[in-house]
Amino acid sequence: MEIRAEEIKNNPNRPQHVAIILDGNGRWAKKRGLPRMMGHNEGVKTVREIVTASAEAGVKYLTIYAFSKQNWNRPKDEVSAIMSLLLKTAQREIKELHRNNVRLKVIGDKNDLPNEARDVLEQGIELTKDNELLTLVVALSYGSRDEILRAVHTLAEDVKSGELDPNDINETLFGSRLDTADIPDPDLIIRTSGEYRISNYLLWQAAYAEFYFAEELWPDFHRQEYYKALLSYTQRERRFGKTSEQVSI
Ligand code: IPE
Ligand code: IPE
Ligand code: MG
Description:
Blueprint: H1 5-9, E1 17-21, H2 25-31, H3 36-56, E2 61-68, H4 76-99, E3 102-107, H5 115-127, E4 134-142, H6 144-160, H7 171-176, E5 188-191, E6 210-213, H8 223-234, H9 244-247
Helix pairs in contact: 2-3, 3-4, 4-5
Bound molecules: 3-methylbut-3-enyl trihydrogen diphosphate (IPE) (2 copies) and magnesium ion.
């Protein structure tokens, strides 16, 4: 049976923040005898569909893993074609996001990105900063260990300059130095393509996330598959270390 957006939206247990590891673009193309880039092009369409589906289902934060720190190690032509696709997509889609009241954020090491793409993204972040329907967080040149180390460096500098007492370092302060500073932790992490790993994604933030693994390759992951994941999440009991009796009161 079809799952409707309202069904999720009206459910008080729906996730506030969904983070996705979109995987399987290359295999989608290969299965059809096409070059890998065709899979990435197709994957952009799915991103658009899932952004809309998220807003309609009342999800407030959607984080998508679009390019990892480790992805720079792919063949040069794939990397540069992905960077061109990123620029083209950002140029085309940012106005649309703004029209739809979506706020754009980027996590990851922006310094690694080509200047033009970085500029377009920064303008988009500025343009959409007051939008409230949904926050779309795009992880670009993102690696969680890299993010954590960058946070550690800022703390170490503050200790060295005498501005910070090491005893004052707690979870809240540490979290505020991460790229995700003003973003709540993900409630649900979805990975497509039948791979069961985290690939350096949101390691700190995922401490208590629920996981959902979908068999579909990312370009085949449509609204219904997504809503199936959200519905599965609403049926789980999150205990945060407590007993079932404690949390079900
Ligand atoms: C995910 O698809 C997109 C990126 C990592 C940029 P892949 O390109 O990893 O696709 P597969 O895993 O090779 O099929
Ligand atoms: C993870 O996908 C990164 C992104 C989705 C951008 P990969 O396909 O690069 O992951 P691994 O290297 O196979 O784990
Ligand atoms: Mg992959």
